[in-house]
From TrEMBL:
Domain of life according to the entry: Eukaryota
Alphabetical UniProt keywords: Heme, Iron, Metal-binding, Oxidoreductase, Peroxidase, Signal
Pfam families per UniProt: Peroxidase_2
GO molecular function: metal ion binding; peroxidase activity
Secretion signal, residue range per the UniProt entry: 1-31
Family listed: Belongs to the chloroperoxidase family.
Annotated protein name in UniProt: Chloroperoxidase
Length: 288
């Protein structure tokens, strides 16, 4: 990208931010959509009916993100996970998960920029998002670090089970719910462990916030509901009858999202888990 390209990228980012402010204000004055009416008519998931789930086949492209893989598994994105237009991604995340329109434009543009492609014209395969320390980073709640598992489409079931087991809250029906504090605790533990088990471990400040953004998606769009998260994280499947838990007409905006991301990140205390992590690393070294 030349200087003009870079300038226009940042200029557009600023414009998207401005748009996000307007959408956030709009949400403050408009009422939420009723339960059962979040997904708009004519889109996959309307009325709780999601297109058929078919787990990935050999050679299908998948990535480190369970929510995107689930869209491919339901055919909302191409089932083979290949040749996806960035613009298509923007359109489909909007109605599938009810992220705000600004958010849905922001993230795929960042991805296109990272892959040095043209957001408006080009396509990508899901696995291309796993460029290490681009979007993909260490200390995942659902994947082993790249140094230990180069194929980031492969989930690490033990991590996911542990994450879900950290839920301390319950809804009115007694079903398990993850809270902000639970996400901070498991993130701290995962980072402390990754640091001592992966000698190539890296975690920039940017990626810490990115990780907390993943956690915050689980708390907002998925409402922290362990049952639903089990389907999304383990099967990469959208549960039957599911709809996004954010019911605001303009969806989850980037500004509103920060009210979850910031507390989750600021309460993450890696140091609290350093002793446990060290014992784990020592016992693994002992086993070798
Ligand atoms: C997957 O790709 C490999 C290599 O391109 C090919 O040999 C194999 O037949 C493919 N498998 C399927 C099920 O398409
Ligand atoms: C957040 O998602 C990215 C991409 O899917 C992944 O590489 C990263 O490890 C995740 N972070 C956490 C803390 O789960």
């Amino acid at each position: 990208m030349g200087i003009l390209g870079t300038l226009s990228f940042h200029f557009t980012n600023a414009a998207i931010m401005g748009w996000d402010v307007l959408l956030t204000l709009g949400n403050l004055v408009q009422s939420s959509r009723p339960v059962g009416k979040v997904t708009p008519e004519g889109h996959p998931g309307y009325g709780g009916y999601w297109p058929e789930y078919r787990p990935q086949q050999e050679n299908d492209s998948r990535c480190a993100c369970p929510a995107l893989n689930a869209m491919a598994n339901h055919g909302i994105l191409p089932r083979n996970g290949r040749g996806i237009k960035f613009t298509e991604l923007t359109r489909q995340i909007r109605t599938t998960y009810n992220f705000g329109a600004s958010f849905c434009l922001w993230v795929p543009r960042i991805a296109a920029n990272m892959l040095k492609r043209d957001y408006n014209k080009d396509t990508f395969d899901l696995e291309e998002l796993d460029l290490h320390n681009g979007i993909e980073h260490d200390g995942s709640l659902t994947r082993l670090d790249t140094a230990l598992q180069p194929n980031q489409a492969i989930k690490h079931v033990a991590f996911i089970e542990e994450l879900l087991s950290f839920a301390t809250s319950k809804d009115a029906d007694g079903k398990a719910l993850l809270t902000e504090r639970d996400m901070s605790r498991i993130s701290g533990k995962r980072r402390a462990e990754a640091k001592v088990t992966n000698k190539h471990y890296t975690m920039s400040l940017y990626h810490k916030f990115f990780g907390s953004a993943n956690s915050s998606t689980m708390l907002t769009i998925f409402g922290g509901r362990v049952d639903d998260l089990r389907a999304i994280l383990l099967d990469e499947r959208i549960p039957e009858g599911w709809e996004p838990r954010v019911r605001k007409p303009n969806g989850l905006t980037m500004i509103t999202f920060q009210f979850t991301v910031l507390p989750v990140e600021f309460r993450t205390r890696e140091a609290d888990w350093a002793g446990d992590a060290k014992r784990l690393a020592d016992s693994e070294a002992g086993r070798r």
